């Protein structure tokens, strides 16, 4: 059988094409590898899967759909290198050591929560990775003076100052407080006590409780007997819902009812239903805050569905942190020291307003208070940031 003769011109074209293939492959920009851990299982999952990881996924998807992350004028695809930290501090620490030490990813994104960020912040600083943390509240992190670490959320002092200012302006005279006995609760409780000084308000009760408590009703009944004008809970999501449900069960309905992390979640509105009306909590934005906030909200709902809205506090801070990081990389590239210097200097336009850092602290965003009103978590304090007026008295639990 004769082998068909291949024309010389065809052979030369094939050879040229084969030689060109490596060049074509090399011409494709390498992905920007961005590493993080996130709680997909364990007790931190609720917060992590509402406030943080959905935003990381949406951000990467949007960037890649637009050609990639702008790295000093060149678009490069984003590759997320992530794992489940199982809500376990040792896993968080080991994973970030690996990401920054041996994997040498280009950039890192923070884990969820004050405790995890407190554990990882020194590691990121040692390896020289800029860290814009959107779910950490800790004065101790600021006092550590880590130059690569930036806290996006308003910290305990401005948040508690805003809350006390609102209560005082509304004629509140007495307040009772509960707080989770870990870093978040302890620091916010301490800041609240300082803010109360000279306010004319009296703290009639204060109780700590262990994280993961299953029953707060004895504490709530004791507080109810003292009939305070305001109840303040420095709580994580499970505690927030537990305190609200059990307050409803025992008929504890003070004029002002404030809980912390989780109050801004759609989950809270879904669980409490009409009972959410008038409840105050930690919140800083909603779709009315800016055109950018509305565009972000719409994109989030389009990707994840109406049953998984972004929360009205840390989700906005998470997206703002990604906006700042992308702007830095567009300006200075992937030089992490240059990114750190860019973040540390000047004002940054974000969906939640201008952000500026003094050391690690975001001093551009004032302390805020939000309130559930007709299905939306409205910013009600300070008045300059408000998306709706304060409802002056919480209605009875529905």
Looking at the structure, the CATH topology of the largest domain is Rossmann fold
Please count the beta strands (DSSP E, at least 2 residues each).
18
| Average pLDDT | 93
What is the percent of helical residues? 40-55%
Strand order of the largest sheet: 9-8-10-11-12-17-18
Q: How much β-strand is present in the residues?
A: 15-25%
**Count of discrete alpha- or pi-helical segments spanning 4 or more residues:** 14
The first-level CATH class of the largest domain is given as: Alpha Beta
Integer tally of domains: 2
Which structural category do the helix and sheet elements fall into?
Answer: alpha/beta
| Name given to the CATH architecture of the largest domain | 3-Layer(aba) Sandwich
Query: What would you call the shape?
Result: globular
User: Termini distance?
Assistant: 89 Å
């Amino acid at each position: 059988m004769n082998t068909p003769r291949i024309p010389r011109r065809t052979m030369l074209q094939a050879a040229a094409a084969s030689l060109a293939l490596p060049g074509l492959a090399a011409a494709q920009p390498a992905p920007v590898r961005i590493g993080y851990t996130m709680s997909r299982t364990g007790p931190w999952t609720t917060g992590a899967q509402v406030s943080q990881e959905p935003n990381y996924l949406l951000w990467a998807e949007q960037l890649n759909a637009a050609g990639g992350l702008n790295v000093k004028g060149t678009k490069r695809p984003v590759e997320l290198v992530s794992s489940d930290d199982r809500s376990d501090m040792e896993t968080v620490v080991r994973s970030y050591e690996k990401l920054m030490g041996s994997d040498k990813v280009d950039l890192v994104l923070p884990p969820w929560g004050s405790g995890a960020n407190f554990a990882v912040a020194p590691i990121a600083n040692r390896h020289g990775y800029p860290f814009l943390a959107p779910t950490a509240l800790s004065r101790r992190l600021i006092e550590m003076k880590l130059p690569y670490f930036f806290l996006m959320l308003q910290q305990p002092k401005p948040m508690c100052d805003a809350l006390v200012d609102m209560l005082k302006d509304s004629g509140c005279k007495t307040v009772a407080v509960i707080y989770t006995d870990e870093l978040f609760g302890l620091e916010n409780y301490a800041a609240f006590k300082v803010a109360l000084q000279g306010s004319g308000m009296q703290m009639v009760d204060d109780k700590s409780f262990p994280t993961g408590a299953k029953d707060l009703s004895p504490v709530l009944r004791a507080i109810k007997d003292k009939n305070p004008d305001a109840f303040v809970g420095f709580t994580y999501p499970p505690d927030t819902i537990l305190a609200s449900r059990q307050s409803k069960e025992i008929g504890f309905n003070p004029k002002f009812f404030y809980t912390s992390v989780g109050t801004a979640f759609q989950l809270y509105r879904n669980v409490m239903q009409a009972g959410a009306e008038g409840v105050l909590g930690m919140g800083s934005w909603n779709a009315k805050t800016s055109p950018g906030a509305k565009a972000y909200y719409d994109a989030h709902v389009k990707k994840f569905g109406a049953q998984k809205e972004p929360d009205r506090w840390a989700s906005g801070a998470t997206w703002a942190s990604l906006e700042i990081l992308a702007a830095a990389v567009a300006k200075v590239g992937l030089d992490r020291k240059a990114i750190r210097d860019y973040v540390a200097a000047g004002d940054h336009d974000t969906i939640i307003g201008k952000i500026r850092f003094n050391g690690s602290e975001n001093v551009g965003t004032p302390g805020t208070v939000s309130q559930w009103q007709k299905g939306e978590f409205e910013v009600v304090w300070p008045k300059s940031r408000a998306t709706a007026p304060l409802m002056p008295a919480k209605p009875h639990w529905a």
